[in-house]
Amino acid sequence: MKDLLKKLSEKFDEEADKIKESVINNTEYTSDFFDILPTFTSLEKRPRKMWGKKGVYIFVITKQVSLNYNIVCKWNSVSGAGFKSYNQQSLVVGDCLYVGSSDSLYGRMREHFSADSGAASLKLSHPNRKLALESVCVYSFALKRDFVIYSSIIITQIEKRLHNSLQPKAGSSRV
């Protein structure tokens, strides 16, 4: 049993590394677990292919966003997905803003782009967070049908590994 768990953990590490490499270095992505979905930059552009899919997603900064202590304080005054550091000068192109997973990718994107959604959300349309609204690109990876029965284990483990390696600027840590 111990060997099986070790192999599974290694497979999750490998998968998270492939996703990270695909997002950061724009490399080709092939996977046993996930299908890559088209990237998008706004709620209106989210792909219909997300509908009914479970998976992981990454918000990446595409345009520099200037920050200061006051801006970060305003951002963090909104519940959910706060910045971890108050001393950030800016978000630069390629920074990971947020990593997440969901049993409903399509609906979860609505929450992240909305101003008044659940507690653990980016709420990019909120007046204190609009500064990042037009500076993100979302990469999403839908769990293949064969693995849906194991979705809670797979997407949670992959999200945790991505979070640890990409170190997103916003959101709580995954342990």
N→C terminal distance: 23 Å
- Characterize the main sheet: 4 strands, antiparallel
Q: Strand percentage, roughly?
A: 15-25%
Order of secondary-structure elements = HEEEHEEHEH
Cα-based radius of gyration, to the nearest Å: 16 Å
Poorly predicted residue ranges: none
Structural class: alpha+beta
Question: What's the rounded overall pLDDT mean?
Answer: 91
Q: Major sheet: order of its strands?
A: 1-6-2-5
How many runs of DSSP E, i.e. beta strands?
6
Describe this structure in words.
- The mean pLDDT is 91.
- Helix 1 packs across helix 4.
- This protein has 175 residues and is of the alpha+beta class.
- It has 4 helices and 6 strands, in the order αβββαββαβα.
- The chain has a 4-stranded antiparallel beta sheet with strand order 1-6-2-5. A two-stranded antiparallel ribbon has the order 3-4.
- The chain is globular and about 50 Å long.
- Helix content is 33%, strand content 17%.
- The longest helix is centred in the N-terminal third of the chain and has 24 residues, at 2-25.
Q: Which features would summarize this protein structure in a list?
A:
175 residues; alpha+beta; 4-stranded antiparallel β-sheet; two-stranded antiparallel sheet; 33% helix
Please provide a brief summary of the model.
The protein has 175 residues and is α+β, with helices and mostly antiparallel strands. It has four helices and six strands, in the order H-E-E-E-H-E-E-H-E-H.
Compile the SSE list and pairings.
Blueprint: H1 2-25, E1 34-36, E2 55-61, E3 65-66, H2 69-76, E4 90-91, E5 96-102, H3 105-113, E6 136-143, H4 151-166
Antiparallel strand pairs: 1-6, 2-5, 2-6, 3-4
